[in-house]
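Thread: "does anyone have the structure for this chain?"

Original post by V.I.:
We have the sequence but no experimental structure in hand. Need at least a predicted one for the grant figures.
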Amino acid sequence: MKVLFIIDSLGVGGAERSIAEIAANFKEFTPVVCHLFNNKDLKHIYDQHRIKVISLDLPKSYKDAQILPKLLEIVKSENPDLIHASLYRSMMLSRKIKTVIKIPLVNSFVSDSYSSARFNRLKLKTKLKLKYYQFIDRSSAKIADVFISNSQAIAGSNCKALKLKSDKVKVIHRGRNFEKFSNVDERKVENVKVELGLKNKKVFLNVGRLLESKGQQDVIYAFKDIAGTHPEAILLLAGEGNYRSVLEKLISEYSLENRVFLLGQRNDIEVLLSVSDYFVFSSYFEGLPGALLEAMMAGKIIIAGNIPENRECVDETSALFFNPGNVKQLRELMQKVLNNSDNYKHLGSNAKNIAAAKFDIKMISALYEETYKNIISKS
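Reply from O.Q.:
Generated one for you, tokens below.
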């Protein structure tokens, strides 16, 4: 059987990376991935897994009416047994496809798109735009046969926002390759230690796109006081995004150029985790956070924001929590683990055990295939 994934782009993001991980482990379905717009930073991952990619490479200014005929041609040519669309534009277009070609359709919940945590941080014009998108989404949501949500928290939130019944949603968590993060090449680890000057250092790591909502500014605020009392402490921020200039200004303002490093987009997160002692996850809201799963699989001591999406992954036996945006709480936890790491190593061990039991990618991919087969059989 064949599944056609439709997604906005192959840029760096959780949904884009997760589709590659999931599809690479299919046993009963042949995946084909079509992306609409001309960002394909992650295409090399799909190529590594020999997943067929159809790149429309369109500018984002294209209207749905211009894109739809191209997608219909692809659907007719590929003749999939099922379509699975992720991210807003792709989902809206997939629903239009289904009104023309009767085919089983899955849509995704990958983030808490309409949450108050997100809404309240927006400017008025952007709030109005988000409300408009929500109206369009709600008006056509029932066309999809099933939504797959990567967390229980965002399933509930999106069902409320889109007026969907809960039985239309199947929760399947994100997954990662457990072996990749639990067994890392020691030569690569030593090379990165030398590259970044980490010998005899205590390293905090944050992984994620550089966005205001990811809270990296809070980590820097918390770290500036720690830097003065703990000369061995280093902060690494891996990721890229439009908030880089703000973070660079903060680093310069607090004279942290030799203590806080913006690493940009990295393809060796498993190595960065290995050279790190602590993982700090500061987002204000998430889907199910893939970066957190990776830190769990690496057995790191985790300091995470107390949000429902994180709580689906770790609890008090496997992580330390602070209220997002509360820099004082975050700083105190960072100081605690620095002062006595041995007292918190059990948290990393527990997190690793949870990750092995709940988030291994082979198990997650099997759940996707089972769900697809059920949808196809019903239709």
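V.I.: this helps a lot. DSSP finds 17 helices and 13 strands in the chain.
O.Q.: and The CA atoms of residues 114 and 161 lie 7 Å apart.
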